[in-house]
Design brief:
The structure is a single chain. The protein is an all-alpha fold. The chain has one domain (23-287). Helix content is 70%, strand content 0%. The protein is built from 16 helices and no strands. Helix 6 runs antiparallel to helix 11. The radius of gyration is 20 Å and the shape is globular.
């Protein structure tokens, strides 16, 4: 059982990149869990059952509701990070062949760099642009085959999902929350889940029947891929430069590809393996920041 307490969230190392990286690593398990455990044909309910129960649990644990301007800010952030992001991501995945949607996710660091410059004043360095382009190149090599058609609706959804998460990441940092990560996560997951609910009911109707395997899958998505992952994610991006944190979600398609190879027996071509390595190098290199040079020591005569 996973217990989330304020003491757990205040662990002194929780703001380090490798701890924040737990979030996109768990998100990378979503494809395997969805294909192996969940009922097919219910992508919106998968997003809904991942967001809303986790949000309500986080609200209960955080024991704090928004006040003042944070009511509308929570709705905006919940829509960008959850309510709009999930449906657009699923639409892109269902209409673009071969996981091409991953390319748009890999472009996230470049989008965040521009938004962080405009909204946070973070300097755009040549280093960040180079690693961002390398990440796009690596993920592209992983998912594109020789014959791939591109659905315009899927392309628009993929671009929209990347832009939605990028803007949500930057605004989550710009609007420094007045509460801890658990309560802040509860505000966003609940707000995003409520925003998605009318669309989910209108498109897919009643929830799908749930057997033991489905309950296990939805439990993983809600408690680990939802509650735990987003607590770590929002805590991390509050303490890291937005441009640095934006590289970490690239780990999601890498984990998905690794699980497909290890668990489902999906093969990786040499080109895909090279792309995997390039994307991983970009993520790791983006976390490294040169230390400021120390001033020279002055020796008394």
């Amino acid at each position: 059982m996973i217990l989330l307490t304020h003491e757990t969230i205040r662990c002194r190392n929780i703001n380090r990149p490798h701890v924040t990286a737990i979030a996109p690593v768990t998100w990378g398990t979503t494809y395997l869990v969805t294909t192996e455990l969940l009922p097919s044909g219910h992508p919106l309910w998968s997003g809904e059952l991942r967001a809303l129960p986790a949000g309500l649990i986080a609200l209960a644990l955080g024991r704090t509701l928004p006040t003042g301007a944070w009511w509308w800010r929570s709705v905006v952030l919940g829509t960008l990070n959850i309510g709009a992001f999930f449906p657009l991501l699923f639409l892109a995945a269902y209409t673009l062949p071969g996981g091409v949607a991953g390319i748009f996710g890999a472009a996230g660091p470049l989008i965040v760099a521009l938004l962080a410059l405009a909204l946070l004043g973070e300097r755009v360095t040549a280093r960040r642009i180079v690693w961002g382009l390398l990440a796009v190149l690596g993920v592209t090599a992983m998912v594109l085959g020789p014959e791939r058609g591109l659905d315009p609706v899927g392309v628009a959804a993929g671009a929209g999902s990347a832009a939605s998460m990028a803007l949500g990441t930057v605004l989550s940092k710009r609007w420094a929350p007045p509460v801890g990560a658990v309560a802040f996560t509860g505000w966003q997951l609940t707000g995003g889940g409520l925003v998605m609910l009318p669309l989910t009911l209108g498109v897919e109707g009643a929830p799908p029947p749930l057997d033991a395997m489905a309950l296990l899958g939805y439990g993983w998505l809600a408690l680990v891929g939802g509650l735990l992952a987003y607590v770590l994610w929002f805590r991390g991006i509050g303490r890291m430069p937005a441009g640095v944190a934006s590289f970490l979600p690239i780990l999601s398609p890498l984990v998905a590809a690794a699980l497909g190879w290890a668990v489902l027996g999906e093969g990786l071509t040499p080109v895909q393996a090279v792309g995997f390595a390039l994307a991983l190098v970009a993520v790791v290199a983006a976390q490294w920041r040169p230390r400021a040079a120390r001033p020279p020591r002055v020796v008394a005569a």
